[in-house]
Structures are given as structure tokens and as C-alpha cells.
Amino acid sequence: MGKQIVILGSGVAGTIVANQIARKIPGELRSGATTLTLLGNTETHTYQPGWLYLPFDLVRPEEIKRSQKSILDPLVHFFVDPIEKIDLPGKKLTSSSKKEYPYDVLVIATGSVPRPDLIPGLQEGGHWFYTEEGALKLRDALRAFQGGKIVVAMGVPHKCPVAPLEVTLMLDDYLRNRGIRDQSEIFYTYPVGALHTIPAVAKWAGPVFEERKILSETFFNMKEVDVDKKVLHSLEGSAVSYDLLISIPPHRGAKVILDNGLGEGGWIPTNKQTLQMEGHDNVFVVGDTTNLPISKAGSTAHFSADILVENVLSVIEGAKPSRIYDGKVFCFIETGRNQATYISFNYSNPPSPPPPTSSVHWMKLSYNRLYWLTARGIL
Questions:
Q1: pLDDT single digits (tens) 21-34
Q2: DSSP assignment letter at 128
Q3: Helix 12-24 and helix 298-316, axial crossing angle in degrees, nearest 10
Q4: Can you give the pLDDT at residue 321?
Q5: CB-side exposure of 115: number of CA atoms within 13 Å?
Q6: Cis omega (within 30 of 0) on the bond before 26?
Q7: CB of 304 closer than 8 Å to CB of 275
Q8: How far is CA 115 from CA 19, 108, 220, in A?
Q9: CA angle, 107 as apex, 102 and 109 as ends, to 5°?
Q10: Region 209-220: what's the mean pLDDT?
Q11: Contact 276, 270 (CB under 8 A)
């Protein structure tokens, strides 16, 4: 039997890894010297950053979804078969259907999920855009909104570090376009003593908020939502009333990671340079699933996947990892008014966002269309 590479998780990280490996060793895969298997929970691949645009009627759900098989290299064996058990000593995975998937090298790319249930009352009283269902529900709420107080609140950790600012500024733009901004108040809260955890981003956001008359409160960590009174309480003891509550729920790793005890919160201890799971030379971790001290974002998955693929191929050939990941991240920031900026940073160099421009906004919208080339491992 040939060597077996198994990728657990068919989101952006797992899909990029699968496609890049397929392109790099097509001869081995065709001959059977190596097999490449991708395991997922759904037949559909979704461009998750597109969910941010759904509430504002800027995209349709079908525009950000494709068949998973349609974006995979034909040499990748893809199965929709949710995994329940990860047996690291035995080097095999077992699915809910009791099928076993042995491996020589395992790549874990199970991502992260929003957990509004961790904040009492948030599921019933809040809205979010981190799932298609949540984004569409928020879209309907915004369509019906005729004025009042909108509170934006954060849970931690969460993926996409700039999403709280993006949704707030896009909301300001949306209300102005509808002609109801003067009848509306936007109240932004953040868990630390600044408008963002990245100092340069927080410094940039302050004057923007002042210009657009967006109110804020820092050191505000969500504790619970009083659904009947429409009041959000913080761990710090403050309370804020709302007519509409938009939240960035706290995120956790996938259930299969939690159930198998592979990492606190569902985040797997990962070597920050080689992307190997700590203590396991033949197991790699990519994307949101890691516990790395960097943003959980699509670009993180993309840049780390490029490095991980080379290291996986080194290990499958019996060598040591040959590439080092430097923590590279790049994020666009939608700022409304048909403008955007961006941040680029790594483990050593902090970001510094330039002034927003319309050209960066159109670059972002262009990338939304080009994403499928990224997932295919081309771009």
C-alpha cells in the first residue's frame, strides 16, 4: 500500500492544501505511490468572508457558494463523512459511519465555529454574520429597522480580527444610504481598553468613529443579554440598552477537536514555524485550528498552507520539514463609502493601515470574485 496523506476539514485551508499537494506530486498520486484524501462535513464550499456582505444586500447567497468537488483537483479523493475519533497513536480517523481512514501524515484543518450559546441570551436576543443563516437573519432585521440604537458587541476569541470595525463602518454607510442615519445611534463596544487589539488599527479607527458619530465603550466584555428588556450586560458591570444587537460571537474550535481533547478551546498546540502539532511529527495543523499567536483569518490559512504543503511533502518523503512560516497575515478592511484599507503583518512586524481608498475597496471586491482561484491553489 502507498503512503497516505489525509486532510481533515474541507474549508479554505484544507482545500488549498489538498489542491496544492495534488499539483506538486501528480505522478505519485496517479501511480498509487501516495494517496490524498480530503474529509469534510458538507458537499458545499462557502466563501465565508462573503457573509459580511449578506446583511447589507451587497451579495446573494448563491454567489458565495460552489460544489466542493468542482473546486478540487481530480486526484483528490473527497468524502463527506464527519469524523468522530482521532486516534493519533494508531494513526487513523474513525467517522460517524464507523469507516476508518488510516494515514501516514495527517493535516488537521477543522476551522472554528461561532458559539453564541456561550453568552446567556445572545442566541435569542442577538444577531451575527458568521453563518449564512445568521447573516440572512441580520439582513431581514436591518431591512425592517427604521431607526433606534444598534449595539455592536464582541466575544473573544473570534475569527477575522477586523470584522468588528468592518461591520460597524458598513452599517454606518448602510443607514446613510437608507436615509435613516440621523434617526439611528451606533454604539460600538470592545473587550480591551482600545477600539481594537492592534494599536495601529485602534489609532486609525478613533478619528473615523468621531467623524461618523459612532459612540463606543471599551473594556466591555459580554456577560449576558436580557432579551425581554433588550439590555446587554458586561462582565465589568456596565449595561447598554439596544433596539438591535449585532454581535461577533466568541469562537471555539471544531467539536471533533474538543471531543478528542486535542487542545483547550478546540485550538491545537502547534509549532509556530513548521506547523506540526506539538509532539507529533506526522501531524500538521493549519488555519483557525491552531493555537498560534496570530489572527484567525482566511489569509492566515492561505499563507500558512503554502508553507505547510512543503513540510508535509518533506515528511512523507522521510525528511524533516524544510520551510518556516513567519506568521504572515493580510486583511482588507471595508470602511464604507466605497472605500477600504488593509493591514499586513507577521510574528515580528506589526501592521500599519494606510488611509482608505476606493481602489483598495475595488481590489477587495475583485478578490471576492477571485477567491475560487485561491481555493484551487492557483492564486
A1: 999 999 999 999 99
A2: -
A3: 40
A4: 94
A5: 15
A6: no
A7: yes
A8: 30, 20, 18
A9: 125
A10: 97
A11: yes
CA 235, 238, 239, 245 torsion-angle sign: negative
Q: 9 in the Ramachandran plot: left (φ > 0), alpha (ψ -120 to 50) or beta?
A: left
For residue 357, the 8-state DSSP code is: B
Query: What distance in Å separates the CA atoms of residue 303 and residue 161, rounded to the nearest whole number?
Result: 16
Q: What is the pLDDT of residue 1?
A: 66
Note whether 245 and 232 are within 8 A (CB): yes
- Residue 167 reports pLDDT greater than 90: yes
Contacting residues for 107 by C-beta, under 8 A, at least 6 apart: 5, 6, 7, 8, 14, 17, 283, 284, 285, 286, 308, 312
Grid coordinates given for 166 = 468592518
Contact 187, 150 (CB under 8 A): yes
Query: Which DSSP state fits 228?
Result: T
Cell numbers describing residue 46: 462557502
Q: Which amino acid is at 31?
A: S
Q: Which three cell numbers stand for residue 272?
A: 509556530
- In this prediction, residue 333 carries a pLDDT of 86
Task: Please tell me what DSSP assigns to residue 61.
Answer: G
pLDDT tens digits along 240-280: 999 999 999 999 999 999 999 999 999 999 999 999 999 99
Which helix (H) or strand (E) element contains residue 22? helix 12-24
Give the chain's domains with CATH numbers. Answer: 3-111+254-316 (3.50.50.60), 115-250 (3.50.50.60)
Complete edge-to-edge strand list for the sheet that includes strand 83-87: 83-87, 92-95, 100-102
Give 84-107 pLDDT, tens digit per residue. 999 999 999 999 999 999 999 999
What's the mean pLDDT when you consider all of the chain? 94
DSSP secondary structure code for residue 48 in this structure? G
Identify whether the C-beta of residue 355 lies closer than 8 Å to the C-beta of residue 367. Answer: no
